[in-house]
Amino acid sequence: MTYLTIDLVVMAISTVITVFIGIYAYENRREHGARYLAWVMLFDSLNSCGSIFERISDTLTEKLYWFNFNQSAHIFTIPYFLFFVLEYVGQQRLLRSSKIFAILIYFALWVSLIWTDSYHHLLRYDIKLQEDVLTFSSTGLSVCLNIFGFMALFAALCYLGVYSGRSGSLARKQMVWIWLSVTLPILWVIVGLVNPLPPILWGLYTAVINGIMGLCLFLAIFKYKLLKTLPIAKDQVVEMMLDGVLVADETGAVIDSNASARRLFAGRAVSSAELAGRSIEKLLAPWPQWRNACERMQQDELEIEIGEKEQSRVYTVKVVPLHSASKRKLGTVSVMSDITENRRRYEQMEQLNRLKDELFAIVSHDIRDPLAVLLNLTEMLEEERPRLSEESGEVFDAVKEKVTNAYAMVENLLEWARSQRGGMTLHARSIVLSSVVQEAAKLLQSKSEVKHIRIRNEVRDNIQVCTDREAVSLILRNLLSNAVKYTKPGGVVCVDAEETDEKVVVTVRDNGVGIGPERMKLLFGGAPVGSFSGTLGERGTGIGLLVCKELVQRSGGEIGVNSAPGEGSMFYFSLPRVIS
């Protein structure tokens, strides 16, 4: 096969590639730079076509015509490549219509000089055919115009290079291939000027260079997703993340990182440029667990500390292996999250919790125990109640009520606090439910007698539950206390229980004021609900029902309420049943 045939084949392949890329760019013309890249590919394909027709032409006139044709197309690739670079890097503000028009006018004048050169010979002289190849000598003006064109391309390439240094990994790879696709033809022209080749070889090698240029753009588009916004957007998002990202390959070398990761290692004398290519073994030497996870390409999570003690920062590091489509491990991605402030807040909360525990310990020993003694004394003095005068009896009843209420409030507070910090322990055993109901009703007897409210225990004596006796007693006392509190004088409170297959459902009903639907939603919501005054102005803490909920749930049951304003309330809860 002759050189002529070879370079024609290569130029034809190059033309097909550029046409294909041009069509692809046109179809994606809404992406940054795509519309200008389509023009670049159009003129480049016209340049290749002109070169082909020049090669197959026989006469000097025909060759000169097609040479002018391909030179014109080549010249117009320069401004459109500039436009492509500016829009691709986000400098659309520089591409105003007036500026574009002025630039294109300049290159149009250059092209007009080419087509009229046969009249003024300002660009070429000594035009002839040598070995069936068009040759000529260039004038000083032609050299200056070409140098200007090369400088314009070089400026665009430099700007692209500077921008790529600030971009993410994917954008940098795209720009490298764009850079190569433009640089190779320029370097080839410079080589031809310094060391001229025989015309036949020059045409062949030029065709090869053009083919390589097309392949570079092909790789940039289809391997590195040029003209696709989403990959670049993802790359920029990773670069701007507050979390550090470090990517290592299967050989243990760092291949990518974002700005946060580079700042993280800056204290270890690692600059942005130095981080890429560094060995994981050396870079992560202070953190063996992290280093081992990256070297073995295994998933792991750990905490590390970086910096001096006073200025140290704490990070959580999550290491995730990268897999190919065939599940082969390709490397690891490490994501570093700064948890220094969270750790400090956690330590402050721990300190506050310790203070809270100390406070409740004081409440438990210094308040609850004396109240328990007072409550026992009032129960002992209950026997002397009939001997007291009417006035003294009323004082005694008031004192007993206050002591009972205070003790119940402290007990509820302590039980709720224990449940919140997980310190509550229940000891389940078989108990007769009716006896516990009777004890709870007796403790509330003085309170109910003041309001002339009857507490009826309708629980059958044969019903037994498997639970903690103190827990169910506290549940019943809270529910009965609320029922008495919100029932008008002369009302009735009834306690009943029904057995199911595995549970015993206990109900506490009253004919009191009832509860509205909005407030009913908040009763078991997890936070204390402000207590409303009772029918005689009684006050409470608002945490009794939360204590009931915690105790019932820890006993393996459920608690709920049915109520309506003016129709009374029915609280119910379930407990494990003792099965004979």
List the helices and strands and how they pair.
Layout: H1 3-27, H2 34-56, H3 60-88, H4 97-115, H5 117-120, E1 124-130, E2 133-138, H6 140-165, H7 169-194, H8 199-222, H9 229-240, E3 244-249, E4 254-257, H10 259-264, H11 272-275, H12 280-283, H13 288-296, E5 300-306, E6 313-323, E7 329-338, H14 340-381, H15 390-420, E8 429-432, H16 433-443, H17 445-450, E9 454-457, E10 464-467, H18 469-485, E11 492-499, E12 503-510, H19 517-522, H20 544-554, E13 559-563, E14 569-576
Parallel strand pairs: 9-11
Antiparallel strand pairs: 1-2, 3-4, 3-7, 5-6, 6-7, 8-10, 11-12, 12-14, 13-14
Catalytic activity: ATP + protein L-histidine = ADP + protein N-phospho-L-histidine
Keywords: ATP-binding, Kinase, Membrane, Nucleotide-binding, Phosphoprotein, Transferase, Transmembrane, Transmembrane helix, Two-component regulatory system
Domain Histidine kinase: 362-579
Task: Note the main attributes of this structure.
Rhopdopsin 7-helix transmembrane proteins; alpha+beta; 5-stranded antiparallel β-sheet; 5-stranded mixed β-sheet; 580 residues; 16% strand; Beta-Lactamase; 4 domains; 14 strands
